[in-house]
Amino acid sequence: MKEAPVWRTWRELPGVVFYRPFLRKSLGMAFTVGALLFAINHTDTVLAGRATSATWLKGLGTCIVPFCVANWGILVAQRRR
C-alpha cells in the first residue's frame, strides 16, 4: 500500500488534498455535514415549496465549509517541518 503523502512546501499541498483516501474522507464529511446544516437552515423553505435555485446553490455552498475544515485537519496532520 502506498504511504500517505506529507508536505513541506505550498506546492506539495495538492498532492495531500487530492490523495484519494484523504479526498474520499473529506468529501464524505463535506456532504454529510453539509446536508445536516442544509436541513437545519433550509428545511422550512423546502417544505413550504419556496426553495429557489438560490436555495439549492446555498446547499452546495454549505458543503464547502466542512470540506475546508476536513482538509485543514488533514494538512495539519500531514505537515513535516
Overview of the structural elements:
The chain is an all-alpha fold and 81 residues long. Helix content is 72%, strand content 0%. The protein is built from four helices and no strands. The chain has helices at residues 13-17, 20-47, 53-62, 64-78. α2 (20-47) runs antiparallel to α4. The model has no long low-confidence stretch (mean pLDDT 95).
Question: What keywords describe this structure?
Answer:
81 residues; mainly alpha; 0% strand; 4 helices
Distance between the ends = 24 Å
Series of H and E elements: HHHH
Shape: elongated
Low-confidence stretches: none
Helix content: over 70%
Portion in strands: under 5%
What structural class results from the helix and strand content?
mainly alpha
Q: How many strands, what sense, and barrel or not for the largest sheet?
A: none
**Mind telling me the C-alpha Rg?**
16 Å
Number of helices: 4
How is this fold's topology laid out?
Blueprint: H1 13-17, H2 20-47, H3 53-62, H4 64-78
Helix pairs in contact: 2-3, 2-4
In short:
With 81 residues, the chain is mostly helical. The protein is 72% helix and 0% strand.
